[in-house]
Amino acid sequence: MPPPRVECRAVGKVYRSGTEELTILRGIDLAIGAGESVAILGPSGSGKSTLLGLMAGFDRPTTGSVLLDGRALEPLGEDELALLRRKCVGFVFQQFHLFPNLTAEENVRVPLELTGVSGARERTRELLERVGLAERARHYPAQLSGGEMQRVALARAFGPRPALILADEPTGNLDVATGARVLELLSEMREREGTTLVVVTHDPAVAGRCHRRVHLVAGAIERVESA
What we know:
It is built from 7 helices and 10 strands. The radius of gyration is 17 Å and the shape is globular. By secondary structure, the chain is an alpha/beta fold. 35% of the residues lie in helices and 29% in strands. Helix 3 packs across helix 4, helix 4 packs across helix 5 and helix 5 runs parallel beside helix 6. Strands 6-7-8-3-9-10 form a 6-stranded mixed β-sheet. It has one domain: P-loop containing nucleotide triphosphate hydrolases (Rossmann fold). The model has no long low-confidence stretch (mean pLDDT 91).
């Protein structure tokens, strides 16, 4: 599957509680080309993570439409969205989200097997070697450092060769040196796999590696910068 083009067309998001309304996003128009890397930046509360969640289909926009590879997500049922995510979207989170009762190797391999990816063991071995954790494959998350856990998370995200990677503050819980190593790996793997990348970040080093930087302020796009 070729990398997708992600599109947000006049996307707005409003949360309602009783008679109260909180507008998170307003009129977001954004097109992300196949194989492109885009950083989403902005102050806390500007709607960055909400926008990422809409791109993943975790939530639905109040107004407008999100398209993945030309396909609108809003009409899809939950089963269809889950299948689409399994096939072509990988996720990297600030909190790692590893299964604590699975080893590093199992955290990468088991999702591949559940998705029906052939050669799951070989792919897992390849990825753990690529992120420098072949010798830590049998260790559990509690036995790994933060940087090692994030490298396992990277291997898991790239496992099924997704067309799109969505990353939410992937270096936010790491020290500068460790974050730089994880960032280097993320960039290398994206280029090698030809993956489209959308990353929410406060880190200038992360944003500086992307083709474009989209700045959000109060739920709207303030400006877009090219590398």
